[in-house]
């Protein structure tokens, strides 16, 4: 499995699956979640509403992952996960590890060969980018990743990109 780090907008990536740093409601929010909903179009919200009407009546728990189609996105699928919110006292690294691990498990079960991740929990949810990067790289490296050829981290600015690149270099 190759791991790449790039600066950019995750909604523009032509990969099999992009991961959304969603919230438990699954009904959209700010940050990367809002950008993904805008780029995917209204069908994404409809698909998320259908999840809420079915197996996810109580929303998606922190650390869990669920997939929808990507609709108008270049990506075929969106894997929605919920990172821990540091501002709500969710500071257990195991929760963030679970978000990355369960998203990868979902990518494997979808048959995705390429997956793009944002810096889950590093925005509104208040985790330090360096902590997110370390957990993300470690979790992905130890995942069997069956069938996944490429994992990319798509970061919104160069400062966060540098943090992820050093986490990647540190583990070499
Ligand atoms: P969380 O609530 O999990 O912290 P946010 O969306 O607030 O999620 O932030 C997660 C990260 O995603 C932040 O580093 C933010 O700068 C970044 N981000 C925001 N929009 C995009 C985008 N279009 N593509 C990639 N990353 C993005």
From TrEMBL:
<dbReference type="Pfam" id="PF01661">
    <property type="entry name" value="Macro"/>
</dbReference>
<dbReference type="InterPro" id="IPR002589">
    <property type="entry name" value="Macro_dom"/>
</dbReference>
<dbReference type="InterPro" id="IPR043472">
    <property type="entry name" value="Macro_dom-like"/>
</dbReference>
<feature type="domain" description="Macro">
    <location>
        <begin position="1"/>
        <end position="172"/>
    </location>
</feature>
<protein>
    <submittedName>
        <fullName>O-acetyl-ADP-ribose deacetylase</fullName>
    </submittedName>
</protein>
